[in-house]
Amino acid sequence: MSLSSELAAAIEEPDLRPQPSGPDELAITPAQKMLSACSGSIITSLFVTPLDVVRVRLQQQELLMPTEKCCQRQVFWNPVPITTHSNTCTNTGTTECVTETARSVKPLRGTGSALVSIAKTEGLATLWRGLSLTLFMAAPSNIVYFTGYELLRDSSPISAYTTLNPLLCGALARVLAGTAVAPLELLKTRLQSVPNNQSMLSTLIKDLGSELKIKGPQVLFRGLTLMLWRDVPFSGVYWASYEYFKALFDKNLNVTGKPDSELFVHSFLAGSVSGSIAALLTNPFDVGKTRLQISNEKEKSIVKFMSDIAKFEGFGALYVGFVPRLLKIAPSCAIMISSYELGKRFFAKTSQQLS
């Protein structure tokens, strides 16, 4: 056997390849796939937005309340320099850069306490800040992502490789979707990061417009590189894991004997497990993206930006906000993919009945 044949045999997993099962395999139109992709957006957005707000607040705390090893750095809503020191985190070994304001703010200690604290001090509605942008982003993002993934997967020249193909196609679909909504993602992150209702969406849009005139179009894509470092591997790992677990559950897990119910359960479980695995592997880039989008620091190389966080704050800082992110991602991935699969089956059955 040649080396290429051995490699192909190692990557292929023909035993777990999904088999055609009735109306699911019927062709449905791109518009029907788009509707299926958007069907779970409202439910997931309402459920996960508070966790998204908490994730952002936990990840930005070091910018607002730095440790003794770091000077306090500027954030976009506070353009006046806090000290005469550099905005870059430096190992000063003293507390001279930590302001009295930073000392007076009570830090958020965890997901549950953060939810209570934000609701108590800023109002319950703050937990759903950015929901309108999330819903506005959902349509173009999910349309490009889900339908783009399936188009790439089904037309790929390496479709026989049941692990490699979804990994690469999922990654490429996320590049397209992430780039399409990057300016909206920037606005959403900034809106969720501002404490005590200091700025609202109209003000943020105006400020971003001013930045656009000064710095050019690239300002709209601030943090995109780190976002893609987070989302591209996330998407690749997610789709490779999803296809694997979905096929595994289809083959070995008989829940109700009813096709629609089993499709929902298998998709829900596979989506949840796959989203959790991908979230664990990519959380450091999520921390970096949030920090970069709300800070006024000059953009650095990815390696330098991430290594500075680990160097001055410890490796654990790269996993700040992981719990709310996991609580957000696992159910949202499960709901979105199961809604998408059931939506496709519904349209496939309808097409079959009308034919």
From TrEMBL:
Keywords of the record: Membrane, Mitochondrion, Mitochondrion inner membrane, Repeat, Transmembrane, Transmembrane helix, Transport
Keyword Transmembrane helix carried by entry: yes
Chain segments carrying region Disordered: 1-23
Membrane topology term: Multi-pass membrane protein
Gene3D superfamilies, A to Z: Mitochondrial carrier domain (1.50.40.10)
Stored Pfam families: Mito_carr
Repeat (Solcar) residue spans along the chain: 28-155, 161-248, 262-346
Matching InterPro entries: MCP_dom_sf, MCP_transmembrane, Mtm1-like
Keyword Transmembrane helix among record annotations: yes
GO biological process, one term: mitochondrial transmembrane transport
Subcellular location: Mitochondrion inner membrane
Main subcellular location: mitochondrion
Listed GO CC annotations: mitochondrial inner membrane
Protein name (Swiss-Prot/TrEMBL): CYFA0S06e03796g1_1
Taxonomy of the source species: Eukaryota, Fungi, Dikarya, Ascomycota, Saccharomycotina
